[in-house]
Amino acid sequence: MSWYRWHGEDLELALRVQTRAPRDDFVGVDPSGDYYRVRIQSPPVDGKGNQSLKRFIAEEFGVAPSHITLLSGEHARYKRLRIQRPRLLPIAWCVLLRRIKFNALICVAVPIFLN
C-alpha cells in the first residue's frame, strides 16, 4: 500500500509517528515509501499521543478531530487513519503529490471543495 489512498471522498493515510518531538510537523515520506513521517510533541502515554496526532491532522486537513478515525496502530508508531472528507491539503503535501503526478487540480485549489 502507498502511504495514502482515497476511498471516495475520504483519505486514508499510513503514518510513522515520532512522539516527544520539539513541535508538531510533517517530515516527509519514509524511505520505504510506505509511510509518511509525522512528528508530534505529546508522549505516547495513556492515549495522549493519539489524541495529539488526531488534533494535528484535523487542523492541517481542515476537519474536526471527530472526523479522524484511527484504523490501526493504537499502541504502535506505525498507524493507519482515515480522514472523512478533508477540506484542505497541507502545502507540503501538494508539492509532493504533484511531483508524483497526482491530480494537480486538488493542489492548485487549497482548500479542497467537495460537493
TrEMBL record:
<protein>
    <recommendedName>
        <fullName>UPF0235 protein CXB77_00740</fullName>
    </recommendedName>
</protein>
<comment type="similarity">
    <text>Belongs to the UPF0235 family.</text>
</comment>
<dbReference type="InterPro" id="IPR036591">
    <property type="entry name" value="YggU-like_sf"/>
</dbReference>
<dbReference type="Pfam" id="PF02594">
    <property type="entry name" value="DUF167"/>
</dbReference>
<dbReference type="InterPro" id="IPR003746">
    <property type="entry name" value="DUF167"/>
</dbReference>
